Amino acid sequence: MASVTEDLEMQRHGSGSLQQNVQQHRGSLHAFLHTLGLAEYFPNKILTLRSLQEIKKDSLSDKKDDSLQAIPWAFLRKLLMANTKSRTLDCASENEETNDWFSESNIDISPNTLDLIVALYACADSFLQQEMTLKMSMCQFAVPFLLPCGIQNQCTLMLWALRGVLKEWCPHSMSKSKGFVEESVVCAKIPLVSFVRLRNCSLSKSQVINHLLSESQQHHDFFCHRDMKGGCRPRMIANGMVEMCWYLPGGNTAIDIFPEPVAIANLRGDVGAFETQFAFLTQVSKAMFVFLDKFEEREQKMLVSSQQLNSKLFFVVNYQRDTHPDVKSSIQAVMEALKLTKEDIIVKSQNINMAKLTDMICSTIRKSLSEPSPSLDIESMSRIACEFGISVDELTSKASSSAEQAAQNIIKGIGVREIVVYKKNQLPLQGENWKRLAQIEKEECRLQTAGDTKLEDYKAELQQEKKIIQKTQSKYKITSAMSGFINAVTTNDSIERAFFLKWLGYKLDMRSRKCLSSLRHAFKEHCRQKDKESLAKVDQQLLDSSLGLEHYLREMGHIYEASLGSSKRLDELPKVAAELLQEGFPLELLDGDASSIPEKWINDVLMELHRMVGQKSRLLVLTVLGVQSTGKSTLLNTMFGVQFAVSSGRCTRGAYMLLLTVGEDLRTELSCDYILLIDTEGLKSPDLVQLDNSYEHDNQLATFVIGLSDITIINVAMENFTEMKDILQITVHAFLRMKEIGKKPICHFVHQNVAGVSAHNKLMTERQHLLEHLNEMTQIAATMEKKRGISKFTDVLDYDVELNHWYNTSFMVWHSSNGTC
Fold first, then answer.
1. What is the pLDDT of residues 6-31, one digit of tens each?
2. Cα–Cα distance between 432 and 421 in angstroms, integer?
3. Which end of the chain is more exposed for a tag (fewer CB within 10 A), N or C?
4. CB–CB of 77/638 below 8 Å?
5. Superfamily the domain 618-821 falls into
6. How many CB atoms lie within 10 A of CB 216?
7. Which residues are bridge partners to 317 per DSSP?
């Protein structure tokens, strides 16, 4: 391992040819992967997200890592749960129990954090890379933009890995009343500001950037730096990596650091050893800051040669008392060659502290942003990267290219204002006939609108109308869009299918966001006016204008059900849906638009799944209930590292199920083979609360999902007790109905936005008050349901006032008031 470090030290100082440096880096990568026990995953990139989602004893353990080989898995588990401390690597030494602080064997041997990240990206497949990037962004970590040389002897631009990252901001040019901008970071034209260093500059640019992006009262380490645990160890393979993070204004001119969004790039290592990355960054950056102690002749030539590129260069000189006397003359030579002024030189002298330095850099950045030169999006940068010989992850995958084309063919011709027409023409089976059919099936159970008609005659009328609708549904021919969709998802290539579903989801979300923005603004206006008719109309427009991946999967289910009554049965479709569940894709369980379940479709999908797993399909079902937009989907994603849709321009509607495998070492203990997660739409939805049937809708939803569940998590916000009481009343009714059928589920309460880490100990009184309210609501609900002998909440379900409460100081990932992400 020592020889590897020496080789990389030579590369860092620019010695040897470029080819030698590349070969040294590859050798170092292989050696490092072998040390971490990851060699089997490289270069085939077979480390997958699905393999990490399996519920095993190791994945539930919080014990200190006892070997280098355990560190990568511990890091990934924490990262997938969006743990902001996941970068803190801690490897226990073999001699730890001796308490001998001075023993050589008691030295922390954890790797450099950046080396670990590069190693995992080198071993991960495209989808795990994408999920790692998303979770790092959620934790406000800088994410890989350019990875160092890998299998193809060239660095790689992570375009595909960045596609899943959405950001929201309010530029000062747009008032808050008009709403925020929400866009994918690869499509947004956000100006890029880059930071690089010459040789071993004694001033840490990562620490400077962290201070620059942080408010004075809320410091955050966006970039790893030498003073962080795991950041001070020598880097072995991360030199040459470019990381990126974003500053996003919140629309408050008093506290926003920059009036517009800014992307920050940071090149690791000596820029003199990575001229390709430097040349690329100078081409795509609005401004570039070069940190240095002094110039050497080689660096002077390199910088002079860069003057024909697009970026504006600024030099941050760490000028101390012991600085070499030739520094002034070398800086003067470069200034003359590049035609720089004194404004282009920022001198960090001993009497300038970090706050003053960051103010000077901020001022320079603002001035650069005010210049009217166009900014590039990352998609455009990827085309420039190819000109510099930089690989692009998205372009190297044939499966991704063909999948994108298939997705584009399906949605071509959809304009922003044409989604309603498109859905009517291409997804007809989930239209008015399906919604009417759902109403009939509910009415067959309730018989509430029979009027003066005899019940038997009324039932016959409903049955007759139902048959007519079903016959009409069965006559529909498969549209061109659904034909392309079914062909794409029935492919035998599971990787191409996964790429297709990702691409289609991204393209649909992009269109829906643009259309839904104006409708949501109109909905807010009607809410202020309390116009119920207009609210209902706009709410229907919101439903009609929403178009996502779930609509195509829903249509596939309707096509299957319609084929059951014809000679052209499509029996392969449930198998496809079962395979998608096995691969980790959520499947719609309850249609949120019609509030109905395609019973035959869901039953056949689950039966097919039962056969596929060899009839080992014991399930533990877990559901989350709560108010809309309180982070229910994010809670499940964080707990289990899964991918329920969040922040896609629309809230969850209906209910979705997702399957997790339980490891062999836990199946006996948990008495199940799989955990089925159910994500639901929010109760007390602002979109529905203005409508007359919103309370009935919430009751039906709660009863349905609680009836399916073994464990129910009630997600509540501590700051709104009235809202919490409404939710509890809804859920108590549902639990009471479960008792009637002999089911007694387990309930946990997750309290969000609780101040203080000692909340559980200090809020005992509040928990007792909550139990009193629960008992009171249980008595009221029991009276309404005409159930005797029920006086306490614990009569309805298993509940412990101490063990069934969880407190989060801020479950959602921390966001500062200025929107920095």
1. 343 433 344 344 445 555 565 688 88
2. 13
3. N
4. no
5. P-loop containing nucleotide triphosphate hydrolases (3.40.50.300)
6. 7
7. 292, 347
